[in-house]
Design goal:
- The relative contact order is 0.13.
- By secondary structure, the protein is mainly α.
- α3 (36-46) crosses α4 (52-64).
- The chain is globular and about 55 Å long.
- The protein is built from 13 helices and no strands.
Length: 232
């Protein structure tokens, strides 16, 4: 059977179940009256070029000072911010990116993420991509996980899996994204697609971390009967 985005999704869902991404501390936001979507936005920037375990350390530091808030992120000194997010690596760059994005949301949307996200998806995407340090993967993670908008996130794990299986697409970001969205939109309604994209991205990450590693563990992989790479 030829593996498609739909059969990939169904196979991984059967193996791993729903994973309920993005990781977020809801109790913190309930206690502090803050918007949990901003934690996702911050995490999407902090996770650039690092492991999630390092992001968690940086987020813990920010929460300890109650900084996961747009206005507070605008007002914090850059050196203090750099020190708090140091565990995530590239902290000088990331601090500037966080300040820049927070300032953009503050000046243009008065800290209101409802106003920011309640617009055309691709208009928001173009705005995000216009900001320094926000590329397609970061922008799409913000749109999908913080904005709850139907867009498929492509990361290095997705590209690796598409190359190895192979799935019938080229491996550029835009081509993979278009192919997955086009195929999955044939199977699911517009209202269902956000959750499908959410689940599938998370499932691909789990697959890549547990089985389809740089040095893969093919014997226990749920996709081994489809994969061209297992005998290489």
């Amino acid at each position: 059977m030829k593996l498609t985005p739909y059969s990939l999704y169904k196979t991984l869902l059967e193996r791993f179940g729903t994973l309920d991404w993005w990781p977020m501390d809801r109790s913190y936001h309930e206690k502090n009256g803050s918007d949990p979507r901003f934690e996702i936005i911050v995490g999407a920037i902090l996770t650039q070029n690092t492991a999630w375990s390092n992001v968690e350390k940086a987020l813990t530091n920010l929460k300890s000072k109650n900084i996961i808030d747009i206005e507070k992120m605008v007002n914090i000194g850059i050196v203090n911010l750099q020190n708090m997010i140091k565990p995530s690596g590239f902290f000088n760059q990331k601090a500037k990116r966080l300040k820049n994005l927070a300032l953009y949301l503050h000046n243009n949307y008065h800290d209101n993420l409802n106003t920011f996200f309640n617009r055309d998806l691709y208009t928001i995407r173009e705005e995000l991509l216009s900001l320094n340090g926000i590329g397609p993967e970061t922008a799409d993670s913000i749109l999908l996980y913080a904005g709850n908008l139907p867009i498929f996130v492509v990361d290095a794990y997705t590209k690796r899996i598409c190359e190895r299986l192979p799935i019938d697409t080229n491996v550029s970001y835009n081509e993979i994204q278009h192919y997955f969205e086009e195929e999955l939109s044939k199977k699911y309604s517009k209202e269902e697609l956000t959750q499908v994209y959410n689940d599938l991205h998370a499932l691909i990450v789990i697959l890549a971390k547990n089985h389809c590693k740089k040095k893969p563990k093919c014997s226990t992989c749920p996709l081994k009967k489809h994969c061209m790479f297992k005998n290489v």
